[in-house]
Design brief:
single chain; 765 residues; Rossmann fold; seven-stranded mixed beta sheet; 32 helices; 11 strands
Length: 765
């Protein structure tokens, strides 16, 4: 009796890659396949986000990883970020190509979606077609012969409505079957003989002088290198194989052109000719297409006037919701951590441990978590707009206006979001496909005046800008000044963006390809997944950097903490207590000559006066510690540098202390001027103290020119650790946050210098 051979079960993690055009519902399908078992990171060396999860399955065996690749229309690309899809499919990142490729197609736009599919099929990997939004196609009267489509593509085709979880289980079964199937060789489409000959010759050259991929993978890379002049794949292949390959590519393209074929157009012509034949065979209109709801809605929502008005109204309502919902939660978080810090200060003996925990650790964790409500709500808002199809319309409407910055319409939402907070604004740039546009948007987003700058504006405007009516009493000078602070970033951002595109981010302009998807009800699951992911990402990735910076700034403001200061102030407190004890003793001796009620009132008054004087000494001690700290000494060192701005060392110290968060400037000024660190922008005592502050020669430190100088500096600087941390996270490099900090600091210094020098001369003229 023959013995059965054991079945080999693979032990490595198998991988599924989801590919498709933008707006095909790929992310929704990814969520349906993986649930909460998701991980987010970045691919090495690029800014592209890597989303992966574990396939939900009941079958035993090793886990199956699902990769959600960025949306793309073609494997022919010009930038490294755009090449991620082909790199992953060829196994360049993980040294192993995916075991199964799932092509997600929009059933209502089959012809356009099949272009990418034909390229993927030629990689000779197991492929499954997920024909998503099948219900939308049926609504439009589109009937698809699934059997004929399967026969034409030679791969399984599964109709799916991902947002409703329809067909997901059948798709999961098709994927599991494909994992067990062998790789099938598929011949490329009928390219002209001259193209095939040059392609075969190029593959021979690559295999002879290169240790890269072979077989269909090498052929796919060779095709994109040959037919996309100046593209990313050509650049990388030449770098790998030497300059001789560049000359060979030029010669081969010349021979194709001599044969009467256009190198730039032949791939599209051949593929779409085949696609047209397939679509005619498998697609029929079972009823005359009626004017769909999308078209009727677009007549209003994409109107150049009404559309923009509605967009601004929607954005206004959206950000009002963000402020309304987020602010109470942010206040609660801030209050909780403030209370926790106060409790630690009461429970622990005064010293470095107490200060580290209360003012360093607790404050650092609070600084991280305070951002979370805004981030989560903003991304929930963006996810809903994207999933319902409106975000593409917003980009379309604003494209011509964003072109003034050299950007496209998709940069509008991130820049607008940055007025609330640059952190979620920068994270929102992930919707921008072009790396060049995404990087420019990231680098200018911090120029938008976020809410953290507002306390600085309110403090200085309230103290030094008169409320003189302007424009016939419609506005006053304080309102105009505040508006100017918000506009200065926008005005500066325009030349900065254009300069970046002509220098460090120069490159050939790319066409802005924008698809207007069919409107649909957004998926709550997809929206909440995205908001959850972004919040978790920020807390884990950016939060660690923010926390570290907070600890460093705390240490600079605490040490060396000389013991002589503590001894001096303890002597002074002892003297004050002794003086009040004498008063209390005299009161006791004289109590026989006064009524009991009068004596009790006098004793209470003495206790209150003692507490007030001791508190004043505590504030003076905190101010003296700060003045003698590394931060305070550094502030004195840089005073010659900031004096041309009209600043003294105290303003410079407060500006440096505000690096973790701009609003810290107000509290630091309160500490330096012995008013305590609990001062806010509305504090009358702080405003009066600033008005009376003087240089050693008696000149006032603050005036209108100095106030404007400080505000312009904060409008243009990047004094925010959270922003720099997120830039590092989104660009996957320390180069860009350092470059952002450098250029914005220099810009802020020059802006403050010009403002002070001009304003001081105008005032004295």
């Amino acid at each position: 009796m023959p013995t059965s051979l054991p079945v080999h079960t693979p032990t490595r993690t198998r991988t599924i890659a989801l590919v498709g055009n933008p707006n095909t519902g790929k992310s929704t399908l990814f969520n349906a396949l993986t649930g909460f078992r998701q991980r987010v990171g970045n691919y090495p060396g690029v800014t592209v986000e890597r989303r992966s999860g574990t396939l939900r399955t009941t079958n035993p065996g090793p886990p199956v990883e699902v990769l959600d690749l960025p949306g793309t229309y073609s494997l022919a690309v010009h930038q490294a970020d755009e090449a991620i899809v082909l790199d992953v499919l060829l196994g360049h990142h993980d040294n192993t190509p995916p075991d199964v490729i799932v092509c997600v197609l929009d059933a209502a736009n089959l012809q356009r979606n099949l272009f990418l599919t034909t390229q993927v099929l030629e990689l000779d990997r197991p492929v499954v077609i997920a024909l998503n939004m099948y219900d939308v196609a049926e609504e439009l009267g589109i009937a698809i012969n699934l059997e004929a489509l399967e026969q034409a593509l030679a791969v399984p085709v599964v109709p799916v409505v991902a947002v409703k979880q329809v067909g997901v289980e059948r798709l999961r079964n098709a994927i599991e079957n494909a994992l067990q199937s062998a790789v099938k060789e598929r011949h490329c489409h009928a390219f002209p003989d001259c193209v095939c000959a040059e392609l075969d010759g190029l593959c021979t050259t690559i295999r002879r002088g290169d240790d890269g991929p072979t077989g269909p993978s090498a052929r796919a890379e060779a095709m994109q290198s040959l037919l996309t002049p100046g593209g990313y794949h050509e650049t990388r292949l030449v770098k790998r194989c030497g300059l001789g390959l560049a000359e060979e590519l030029t010669e081969r393209r010349a021979r194709i052109a001599a044969a009467g074929e256009s190198v730039a157009e032949v791939e599209a012509r051949v593929r779409y000719a085949w696609i047209d034949r397939v679509v005619k065979q498998v697609v029929t209109h079972v009823k005359p297409p009626r004017s769909p709801r999308s078209e009727r809605a677009d007549r209003i929502l994409t109107h150049p006037v009404a559309g923009i008005a509605l967009l601004l109204l929607l954005m206004g309502l959206g950000f009002q919701v963000i402020y309304t919902w987020a602010q109470p939660v942010m206040d609660a978080i801030d209050g909780t951590f403030s209370a926790l810090g106060a409790l630690l200060s009461e429970w622990l003996p005064a010293g470095p441990v107490e200060s580290l925990l209360a003012n360093g650790v607790v404050a650092g964790v609070g600084a991280v978590l305070t951002f979370l409500p805004q981030i989560v709500i903003l991304f929930l808002f963006i996810a809903v707009l994207e999933d319902c199809g409106y975000m593409a319309r917003a980009a379309f409407l604003l494209d011509r206006w964003m072109a003034l910055l050299g950007l496209n319409g998709k940069s509008f939402i991130p820049l607008l979001s940055s007025y609330a907070c640059a952190v979620p604004g920068i994270m929102a740039t992930r919707t921008i496909e072009s790396r060049r546009d995404r990087m420019v948007t990231i680098l200018i987003a911090p120029l938008m005046s976020c809410s953290a700058r507002l306390p600085v504006y309110v403090l200085l405007i309230g103290a030094f800008i008169p409320s003189t009516p302007v424009l016939g009493r419609l506005l006053n000078l304080q309102a105009v000044t505040l508006l100017a602070m918000y506009l200065v970033g926008v005005v500066i951002a325009i030349p900065i963006a254009l300069l970046l595109k002509k220098t460090v981010l120069r490159g050939e302009p790319q066409g802005f390809l924008l698809e207007l998807p069919t409107y649909k009800w957004p998926s709550p699951t997809t929206a909440f997944y995205r908001a959850y992911e972004q919040g978790r990402e920020f807390a884990v990735s950016a939060g660690t950097i923010i926390f570290a910076v907070t600890i460093v700034v705390w240490a600079m403001g605490y040490y060396p903490h000389p013991a002589s200061v503590a001894a001096d102030f303890e002597v002074r407190r002892t003297e004050v207590r002794a003086r009040y004890e004498v008063h209390a003793q005299r009161l006791t001796e004289a109590s026989g000559h006064a009524g009991a009620e009068e004596a009790a009132y006098a004793r209470e008054q003495i206790a209150n006066d003692l507490a007030a004087e001791v508190s004043e000494l505590d504030r003076q001690e905190a101010g003296e510690y700060l003045r003698q700290s590394v931060l305070g000494r550094l502030g004195r060192r840089i005073e010659p540098l900031v004096m041309p701005l009209g600043w003294d060392w105290r303003i410079g110290t407060a500006a440096m202390a505000s690096f973790p968060a701009r609003e810290v400037f107000v509290a630091t000024m309160g500490t330096i001027y012995n008013l305590g660190g609990d001062q806010d922008e509305s504090s009358t005592s702080l405003r009066d103290t600033l008005r009376s502050a003087a240089w050693p020669d008696g000149r006032p430190v603050f005036n209108v020119a100095v106030a404007l100088s400080v505000m312009v500096f904060f409008a243009l600087c990047c004094q925010c650790a959270a922003t720099l941390a997120v830039i590092k996270r989104e660009t996957n490099s320390w180069t860009w946050p350092l470059a952002t900090f450098t250029y914005m600091t220099l810009l802020a210094y020059l802006g403050a210098l010009v403002t002070y020098q001009v304003a001081s001369r105008l005032i004295h003229a």
